[in-house]
Design goal:
The chain is of the alpha+beta class. It has two domains: 125 residues; 161 residues. 30% of the residues lie in helices and 21% in strands. It has six helices and eleven strands. It has a six-stranded antiparallel β-sheet with strand order 6-7-8-9-11-10. The protein has a five-stranded antiparallel β-sheet with strand order 1-2-3-4-5. A hairpin with a 4-residue loop joins strand 4 and strand 5. Helix 1 runs parallel beside helix 2. It holds the Pfam family DUF5996.
Length: 311
C-alpha cells in the first residue's frame, strides 16, 4: 500500500462535503452521550481497522451503552449496544437529510434515544440549515471515502509515533468532525486564562499552554491537504523560527501563524515519513522554546521513559 497516496481536494470535494456532514450528525450525538473530558477529548472520533468509531457512549444520559461506527471499507454505518444487538445501513445513496433520519431510527430500534440539541452543521457554510432539510449534499464515492480512510490511518500512526516522543500531558490521536482533521496536542501545566468572550469551546480547548500537530484534507483557506502545527498562546517571534525545507509559516490572523507542510510536498520527498516527523519536531521546538518549556525534561525518545532502557 503506497504511503501517502495522492488525494487532491478537487477530486472528491462533493463526497467530502457529504461525508463531513454525516460525521457531524454522529459527532453531535457523541458530544451529548459521552462522559466529559478536559479539552473536549470526549468529542472526536477514533480510528478502527476499517473506519471510525465513537467509542462506547451512553449510561450517563439514560441510554444503554452503545457505539456508532463508520465502516469506510464496506461503507456502512453500524450501531451496537452492550447486550450484543446491532443494526446497520448502507452509506451510499443517502442525502444528509435521509442519513440523519436513518441514524435516529436505527438507534431508536436498539433502544437508544439519541439527542442532538442543535441539529445543524457546525461552522460550515450551511450552518443555518437543519440536517433534516439538507437534500443538497448526497454525493458519496466509495473509492474516495476508502482512500480518505487509508490516508487518515497512515497519518494517524505517524502522529502516534510523534506523540510517543513527549512524556508530558498529551491528547489522544483523534479525528475531529468539526474541521475533518486528525491531530494530537502536547500541553504544559501552565494555565491560560482566556477572556469570557472567547467562548466555552475555545476557553476549554486552550486552558493550558499547547502545541498541536495534525493533518487535514483541505478547505477554502488552503485548498489542498496539508500537515500543520500551531502554538497556543502564540509566543512572539514564532513565525521567525526555522522550519525544514518545503515547510512554511502561514499567517491566519495578524498575530497567529500556522506551520504548514503541504501533503504533495511531503509525499514526494525522498523519505516522506521522515519529512513529516522532522516538520512536526521543528514546529514543536519553535513553539516550546517560545513558551519556555523544558524540552529536555519531557523528551521521550522512542516512547521510552525507563532510564535503563531509554535510547
Amino acid at each position: 500500500m503506497e504511503l501517502f497516496p495522492p488525494i487532491p481536494l478537487a477530486d472528491w470535494a462533493p463526497t467530502k462535503h457529504t461525508l463531513h456532514r454525516f460525521l457531524q450528525v454522529v459527532g453531535k450525538i457523541r458530544l451529548e452521550s459521552s462522559p466529559r473530558r478536559n479539552h473536549w477529548w470526549h468529542v472526536p472520533f477514533h480510528l478502527t481497522g476499517n473506519g471510525l468509531t465513537t467509542r462506547p457512549m451512553g449510561q450517563i444520559d439514560g441510554n444503554p451503552v452503545f457505539t456508532v461506527d463508520f465502516d469506510l471499507v464496506g461503507h456502512r454505518l453500524l450501531a451496537r449496544v452492550l447486550d450484543g444487538r446491532e443494526a446497520s445501513f448502507s452509506l451510499p445513496g443517502h442525502s444528509v437529510a435521509t442519513f440523519h433520519q436513518e441514524v435516529l431510527t436505527t438507534l431508536m430500534g436498539l433502544g437508544v434515544h439519541a439527542r442532538i440539541p442543535h441539529p445543524y452543521p457546525y461552522d460550515l457554510p450551511d450552518a443555518e440549515r437543519p440536517f433534516a432539510d439538507d437534500t443538497e449534499h448526497a454525493d458519496y464515492d466509495p473509492a474516495a471515502v476508502t482512500r480518505y480512510w487509508r490516508v487518515l490511518s497512515q497519518v494517524g500512526l505517524l502522529l502516534e509515533e510523534f506523540a510517543g516522543r513527549y512524556s508530558g500531558k498529551t491528547s489522544p490521536v483523534h479525528h475531529f468532525w468539526h474541521t475533518l482533521d486528525i491531530a494530537t496536542t502536547r500541553f504544559s501545566n501552565t494555565p491560560v486564562r482566556l477572556p469570557e468572550e472567547a467562548g466555552p469551546l475555545i476557553r476549554e480547548a486552550y486552558s493550558r499552554e499547547a502545541v498541536s500537530f495534525g493533518f487535514w484534507f483541505g478547505d477554502d483557506s488552503v485548498p489542498e491537504p496539508a500537515f500543520y502545527s500551531y502554538t497556543a498562546p502564540e509566543p512572539p517571534g514564532l513565525a521567525d523560527e526555522p522550519l525544514p525545507e518545503g515547510a512554511e509559516w502561514l499567517a491566519t490572523a495578524p498575530d497567529r501563524h500556522l506551520a504548514l507542510l503541504r501533503y504533495d510536498r511531503a509525499r514526494t520527498a525522498p523519505d516522506p515519513r521522515a519529512a513529516v516527523l522532522d516538520f512536526y519536531e521543528a514546529a514543536y521546538r519553535a513553539g516550546a522554546r517560545g513558551l519556555g518549556w523544558d524540552i529536555a525534561e519531557t523528551a521521550c525518545p522512542d516512547g521510552v521513559t525507563d532510564p535503563y532502557r531509554a535510547p
